[in-house]
Design a protein that fits this description.
Oligomer: single chain
Strand content: 15-25%
CATH superfamily: Alpha/Beta hydrolase fold, catalytic domain
Helix content: 40-55%
Order of helices and strands: HEEEHEHEHEHHHHEHEHH
Shape: globular
CATH topology: Rossmann fold
Number of domains: 1
Structural class: alpha/beta
Length: 299
Amino acid sequence: MLKLLAALAFTLTASAAPGRMIDLGGRGLHLLCTGSGAPTIVLEAGAAEGWYSFHLIQGPLSKDFRVCSYDRAGFGYSDPRPGPRTTAALNEDLRELLRRAGEKPPFVLVGHSLGGDLVLRYLARYPSDVAGVVLVDAADPAVRLRRPPEMQKLIDELNEKRPKQIAEWKRTGKWPEMWAPAALPESLRTEVLRLSASQKWWEARYAEGRMSDLDKPPELKTIDVPMIVITAMKWDRPDGWSDASYETYMADRLAVQKGLVERGTRSELITADVGHHVHVDRPELVMEAIRRVARRSQE
C-alpha cells in the first residue's frame, strides 16, 4: 500500500509539472527540455529558484538549440535530496539527471548567481561534459569571503532567526510564499508562488545557504572552453549599507569577475546596467551571449 501511495504521489507530481519527472532512484527531479540543435544548453538557476527563472529565454533559444532547465532538489516540482546538501551533491544530481533523461554532452552551461558558482564547479569536476559557459552575475566564493560588515551582520541575524521561523511554520503548517519575477506570465507566477509556500522549498533554501563546501572555490586554474561572464552593475543598495560599503562590494565583485575572465583562454566580460536578474531584465543580452558561446564551442 505504501509503495502504491508513493507511486501515485509521483504520478500526480509528474502530471502537474510542465516538464518530465526523472527518477533518480526513488526521488524525482523536474526537467524541462525544449527545441533541438547542438550544443544542448543547460540552465542552472540562482539560489532557491528553479526552471521558471529562465522562462523568458528558454522559448526563444529553443528555436535554434536544445535547451534544458530544471528544479534542483527541493525546489519547484523536484523532491528533496536525502543527506547533507553540498555543491558536490548538486552537481552529481545534475549530471545523473541529464544522463537518465538521455541528454547528450558536451553542454553549454548557463548559471545565474549561485547557479554560476555551481556551473564552474561542474566544469572543474566534469570537464569533458562542458562545451562552453555563460555566467549571469555569478556568485563567487572570493566575493563571499569579502562581505562588508553590514552584509555579514544581516546574514548572521538571518541564520540565527531562520531555524526558529522554520520550526514555527512547520508547527502551524503555514509557509510563506517566496519571490518570483514579475515579468513572468501571471498564471506561471501564481503557480510558482503557490509551490514556494512549502516545507520542502524553505528547507532547501535554508540548506543551500549553509552548504559545507560553499566557500571552497572550484579547482580551475585555467578555463579552456568558450566563456562569457555577465556582471550586473546596478544592484539595489540594501537597507543599512553605507555608500562606501556598497561601492567597495560592487568593485570587489567586478574585480573577481575580471579575474575569472583572465583565467580563460577564450573568455569575455560583459557589464550590464541592470540589477542581479539580468536574464529577466535584459533577456536579449543573455540570449546573445549564449548564442555566441554556443557558436564558438562548435568551431
